[in-house]
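re: ur question from the group chat, yeah i did fold both. here u go
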Amino acid sequence: MDVTLLPQVAFMFLLIFARIGTMVMLMPALGEQGIPTRIRLGIALSMTLVMYPMASAAYPAQMPPTVLGLVTLAAGEFIVGFFVGLAARLVLSAMVVAGSTIASQSGLAMAQAFDPAQGTQGVIFGNFLSIFGITMIFVTDLHHLVVAGIHGSYTLFPPGEWMPVGDLAKYAVMTVADAFRVGIQISTPFLAFGLIFYLGLGILNRLMPQIQIFFVAMPANIAMGVLLLFLLLGTLITWYLSHVEDVLNRFVAG
């Protein structure tokens, strides 16, 4: 048995783990904060073992002779993993935007709770839509595209090459804009509902100013908003999943 290759194999394994581990910690569905860190680490190690035979060919055959070369190569893998994982993570912000807009139109903007998907306080509708969207990613097997995107990143960003900073900045802006656009499109029925509802309240208040419109309208606004959400939930989640699929397909080579 020739053990002289062990340092090269170990170093290559660590490089692959640096890229894949960073992606897994940030990827939607696989990298949620609700999943324990040990499980995410186990997923990253397992995926590194699976990807090693395919990804090892993309790395140099010999280790860099200097420490600076080793650090540069490892830093490049961390940066690629961080960018791809963060770009995929921004997909979830579409549901946060939609939930915040829906909550504001339904009178529940001030009702907040802890969002396990984002790790911060969020409106109730946003929390529900974020968790429901993550669940549907697994149900519809879109997490397979996450794995395919990790493999495709080696074609988009070969190890050891300089990353196109200008293109990455442009793509980041486009991803954020697309997430905001999809979030507004998902919440469009509630924007129309809010416009009509508050317009009717304004007319009613002018006709009968002695009625306390706020106390009468608030329960009706919440009830109608919740009813409208569950009536349109299937259509909204279908639109969201198509957006997730489009974003993840950008990283799938082939």
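okk and heres the other one u asked abt
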Amino acid sequence: MSLAPRHSRLPTAVWFVALAFTGLELAVAARYGFHRDELYFIVAGRRPALGYVDQPPLAPLLTRITAVLGTNPIAVRTLPAVAGGLLVAGAAKLAGLFGGGRFAQILAAVATACAPVILGAAHLAGTTIFDLLAWTGVLLAVTTAIQTGRPRYWLLAGVTAGIGLEFKDLVLLLAASLVAGLLLTRRGAVLRTKWPWLAAGLAVFLWIPNLVWQVLNGWPLLTMAAILHSEHSSANDHVTVLPAQLLYVGILAAPVVVAGFIWLWRQREFRYLAVAALLLLAYVVIDIPGRPYYDDGLLPALFAGGAIAIERHFSASRRLSRGGWIAAPVVGALIALPITLPVLPQSILHDIPGLHKLNYDLRETVGWPEFTTAVANFAASMKRAGTPPTAIFTSNYGEASALLVFGSQDDLPPVISAHNNYWLWGPQGASDQVVLTIGVGDELDSYFGACRAITQLHAPDGVVNDEDGVVVGLCTAPREPWTQIWPSIRNFS
């Protein structure tokens, strides 16, 4: 039996929810400041390539496009905010394709818009929100192809997956889980037609530019995958992965997800999606628990299924009960908002216990202009003393990128790093005679005759983040040139 959608057009209320989501994101876009990844993407966007060590090319490319509006958080974060709004509408569309009515579509949109993981992802100009949107696009196309008997929608799924792969390679997880879900629920006949394979061919074709880059650069994708697995599979990660899932979904919206899984499992037509969700959760829990959001691309489908279950359980005459289901995700989002988006005064962030663990990214958007000013002032003081630094070597791409983005008017020496794609860009002719080091520790001690710590830098307003307390040092008397030591100091993480 085909569960054709009751409505081909989304209710007006869904678009209001999507617009409200985007409006909220834009309203707080300028608060605090850039995230280290955004600064890195801005620099990478100025050096366009078919790929980078730690991501495909499209996210950095978008920062180059939005740079026409200025290098500021609002300009850079506009497209992620819009992508989040489209994701909200996509969840409602899934509810319609699953057979849901007006209430189900609205509830799916509200629950998606209020999920902390979606709110947080759409705040930053990174890869996550575009990856999540690609997953939803693939799910929409595949569901349409299977449920409405229009197999050409598989081609749209392939195009969407191919574009998604140029943002983040996690679309491969979705493809694998969908195929496994179809096979395990005895719906493999779908895969014996030409359309899924044409879709796969289209996706690979669109992925070819990045694949070529990977081949030419020794497959850093595989190296990074191994490193991420090692860094994010500790015992503590295994303990916290399931509670983190609840926090990311929204505690008050979690019942909708549970109802959605049960509903999808009970529907023979959609059981493959429930199986896919289980497989993805198992992968995250077992292989990379430190990245609990890796399976959240299926959240819109789970919210859609749960919304239908609730719609059918509570008849239209029980409006109060329906209203409670709509209100629950909103209340949950409001409770979590202070640790999800930059709505609180920056000056009180240090008073919130455990904030860095609950939302690592929030505090990492604080202090980059001040960091740059402090380094620039220190370099200027060395210049006035007659020993100007000939290069600045940073421990990570965030520090290097901040100096390049905010320090363009400060007459800084060449800024280099061995972290991720900065290592690939190399020392770029920088002198190694007097090297100002940022957060490096003893990593360069064996390559220079003298290295010493000079001072520490601190984030403003007492905020504790990765750059608070970073040590500024000085290395002189190089034993070998950069070109000789560069292969030995690579830092992928």
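fwiw on the second one: The chain has two domains: 12-347, 368-489. The first strand starts at residue 391 and ends at 394. idk if thats what u expected
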